[in-house]
Amino acid sequence: MTLRAGVIGCGFFAHNHLAAWEMLDGVTVAAVCDLDPAKAQWPGAVSYADAATMLANERLDFVDVITTVDSHRALVELAASHGVAVICQKPFALDLADAEAMVAACAAAAVPLMVHENFRWQAPLVAVRDVIANGEIGEPTYGRIQFRHGYDIYSGQPYLRTEPRLAIMDVGVHLLDVARFYLGRVTRLHCRTQRINPEVAGEDAATITLDHESGAVSLVDVSFFTKRHPDPFPETIVRIEGTAGTVELRGGYEMRVSGNRPAHQTRVEPEVPPFGAKPWHVVQDSVLNIQRHWIDCLRTGGAPATSGADNLETLDLVFKAYRSAETGRAL
Ligand code: NAD
Question: What pLDDT digit, counting tens, does each position of 179-188 carry?
Answer without folding.
Answer: 999 999 999 9
